[in-house]
Amino acid sequence: MMEDIKEVAVFFMNAEGVITVWNRSAQDMKGYPAEEAIGSHLRLLYTEPDRERQWAEHNLREASRSGFYREETWRRRKDGTLFWARIALTALRDSSGKLLGYSKVTVDLTDHKLLERCVKEREETRRILSTANAALWTWDPESERVEVSANFHGLLGYEDTPDSMTFAQWMELFHPLDKPMVEEKFRKTDVSRPGVPLVMEVRMCKKDGTHRWFHAHADWFRESAGKPFVLSGVNVDIHDLKIAEDELRRAVAKLREADARKDEFLAMLAHELRNPLAPIRSAAELLKLMKFQGADDRVRQTSEIIARQVDHMTSLVDDLLDVSRVTRGLAKLDKVPLDLTLIVMDAVEQVDPLVRTRRHHLGLQLWPGDVTVVGDQKRLVQVVANLLNNAAKYTPEGGNIVVSTEVREGEVLLSVVDNGIGIDPELSARVFELFAQAKRSPDRSSGGLGLGLALVKSLVELHGGTVMCVSEGGGKGSRFTVCLPLASATRQDAAEDPSGDHMTGPDKALRILVVDDNVDAAQMLAMFLKVSGYHVDVELDPLRALERSRISPPDVFLLDIGLPEMDGNELARRLRAQPETENALLVAVTGYGYAHDREKSLASGFDHHFVKPVDPSKLLSLLSEESK
Fold this sequence. Notes:
disordered N terminus; Beta-Lactamase; alpha+beta; elongated
């Protein structure tokens, strides 16, 4: 038997790869005694994954083909542990070239591999720390020393400084104003509770005398049970982020201050404008009473003009005061049970002069039963009056305005509909914002400051309600709908009222399910359809919609295409496949409007394809046909 080599395992195999010679170093390195190794195939020494891919046979073939095969990889010991091996496998042949067997030399390089990995991980850590402007440190309470990573002092502008320092030297690196807080955190950190980390944001001093903000996070650990705990942490430079946060905080504070000054200015302006208005009004009334020789008609006309303009200015001042109070949260509501029908009649009485002046036709379609809400009588009249004023101002002379109320599932819907100038898409998104107005004509006939609708929204929300606007665009009129919770209302069947004064619903009360993950879009469409006389439910999730359709099948589905988890086309296919909804009307309501999108939806089982924003008249026409 050949001489043992302690650092290198050497053994031989026959031409089939069966081990024939096994030295002591091979036994020590691999854990197999000679009597167990000899007679076994080379695959005995390979890991399970390498056995499955027949890597031993591959290595033997490569050595046989080229005469020599070299490899570095993980190898398996008898006890299952792995070691990193450098192997050299040589094919042995006689003078005629016949393969006699193989020799194999294996060197254990596990320590080298682990060292290489440590160096690699250290370089990776150094790269990450450098990229993140961070550095590591460790504090040993027993020795009172702090060890820092090589780049720690570089973050503070120092060079060639030691990586180990006393705790006192460590404390000198912190901003004087932060030192007490830092020392308290270190001294109070409980070594008996190593699971509690140390976290702080702190300033550290640079060599040039400036300071930078760092986020510090540290935890207790120890190398083994017998070793003492040390506190190891990382400091991350957050100075630029901190400066940006401070600038943002100051900017927000300035905006809030400016907003407060704006509110104060509006309130002050409104109050100050009342001072000159009082004598002007008095003068106008006095002119009405006085008689001027040969000038009675002119004096009367002049006084009427002054009075009208004073009324207009007073209305503007009232709006300024109201918007200031409401936006600053100073509006007080005296809430009591109120009959909404009487609220509407009071508002109509207020705007009647304007409606008559512009020769509008004002129609009322009011719910015949009791409609009681809880609210402030003056403020609710103001809401309805503002909506009517808005309709009257933006509807050409001789136009039509309709006020309607309807009770639905514990709430009342109050709508003001006109056939006026309508609302362009770019304005509809901000119609309830302060100072928002439609584009004015050169004669500025509409007037106003753009406060009325903002007040409507604020006051309705103070009453626990919502308000929305729907318009098909310029020149096509508008519908404003206020939704308020009922206090108590007698729900009546939607039978036709003999007086003909309430809205007539569709021939058949269709049940409609709107499926759209856009909450605002779904609720707006649902509210519009409810006002139009249909029973409407909303689902934001297609899977829940599918489940709901089996339990309570609707007559009509209005489906968005771009739904999460399952798109509208797949939902349509599933609805067509289940018996409960195979005959339902399926309508795609989507932002996808190309020809191939329509073809795809119709192929999926849809009956119709509407592109957002939906033309309300076309949708209602379709539903009306379905309800017959």
